[in-house]
Write a structure and sequence with these properties.
Belongs to the ABC transporter superfamily. This is ABC transporter ATP-binding protein. Helices cover 29% and strands 24% of the residues. It is an alpha/beta fold and 320 residues long. It has a domain at 1-84 and 213-259 and 269-320: P-loop containing nucleotide triphosphate hydrolases (Rossmann fold, 3-Layer(aba) Sandwich). Helix 3 (108-119) crosses helix 4 and helix 4 (124-137) crosses helix 6.
């Protein structure tokens, strides 16, 4: 049985201008100990997916349909009390900005102690030892000293490591990381990615890593979901997708990455921009930007399985 099963998840935002469907029948599964990468441009639905999985979508948004099963449990039926037990214990989240999850007026040690004490009956030295070990696991030097520091006394990279330690401290089954390295320099980013991969491997924790940069997840994830306008348009093993993308949008994301062989040349960019959710084109949302567009694209392409992969395209690469 998969650790996480998402079936036809629909999340909508209701406003005066109409209903914006941020997630349109999103489906994927995740096994224990595996890393799933979710990539796409801004506005593709990546963060809404994360917030939907954590049941953190606030009004005017709502989950309008679909199913989320965690270890066989239907989370759509979970009560507020059940969610309080799940969040931070069995399912944890790392936000893009660590200050969203760190209290600026509480010391680092107190915040991590609180995360543990809510879910476990640890006190005194045993609690402090667990906090120190969590900080040490994410590469923070002198954790005993860092426990006495406030968030503003740490660098951005250190704050993000603390946020990751806070998510890992109760040994959850699933961690959802929503672009946690976007604001960091490439050296710190590489260190955190390396440490997260090792933590997932050593602890058996499953990881959903959300990023707009496909190069970030290609060395981290086992499987990748490419999102566009609220839909998963391609899904499969990351090595296969990077080597041979099927959807033109996926190829556009890969082609836009800088290459050593193209030093000094202008980088490729996908023409146009993502459409507003309130005025999506009929059929395939990517069609106005696609060089392979045909009249058939005016209808929504179905999910097509090809071996271990899935895509939504009437004219996938390698055909025509």
């Amino acid at each position: 049985m998969a650790l996480l099963e998402v079936n036809n998840l629909v999340t909508e935002f209701h406003g005066r201008a109409g209903v914006a469907r941020a997630l349109d029948h999103v489906s994927f599964t995740l096994e224990a100990g595996k890393v799933l990468g979710i990539v796409g441009e801004s506005g593709s639905g990546k963060s809404v997916t994360a917030f939907s999985l954590m049941n953190l979508v606030d009004a005017p948004g709502r989950i309008a349909g679909g199913e989320i099963r965690f270890k066989g449990e239907d989370l759509q039926r979970a009560t507020a009390r059940r969610w309080s037990k799940l969040r931070g214990d069995r399912i944890a989240m790392v936000f893009q900005d660590p200050m969203m999850s760190l209290n600026p007026v509480m010391k680092i040690g107190d915040q991590l102690r609180e995360t543990v004490s809510i879910h476990q009956r640890l006190r005194g030295k045993m609690l402090d030892d667990k906090v120190c070990e969590a900080l040490r696991r994410v590469g923070i030097p002198a954790p005993e000293e860092r426990m006495r520091a406030y968030p503003h006394e740490l660098s951005g990279g250190m704050r993000q490591r603390v946020a990751i330690a806070n998510a890992m401290i109760n040994d959850p089954d699933l961690i959802i990381a929503d672009e946690p390295t976007t604001a960091l320099d490439v050296t710190i980013q590489a260190q955190i990615l390396f440490e997260m991969k090792n933590l997932a491997r050593d602890s058996g924790t499953a990881l959903i890593w959300i990023s707009h940069d496909i190069s970030v997840v290609k060395d981290l994830a086992d499987e990748i979901c490419v999102m566009y306008a609220g839909r998963i348009i391609e899904r499969g093993p990351v090595d296969e997708i990077i080597a041979q993308p099927l959807h033109p949008y996926t190829k556009g994301l890969i082609d836009s990455l800088p290459q050593a062989s193209s030093r000094g040349q202008r980088l490729y960019s996908i023409p146009g921009s993502a459409p507003p959710l309130l005025s999506l084109p009929p059929g395939c949302a990517f069609a106005p930007r696609c060089s392979r567009r045909n009249a058939t694209c005016d209808t929504i392409p179905p999910v097509v399985a090809v071996g271990t992969r899935e895509h939504r395209c009437f004219y996938p690469l390698g055909t025509l």
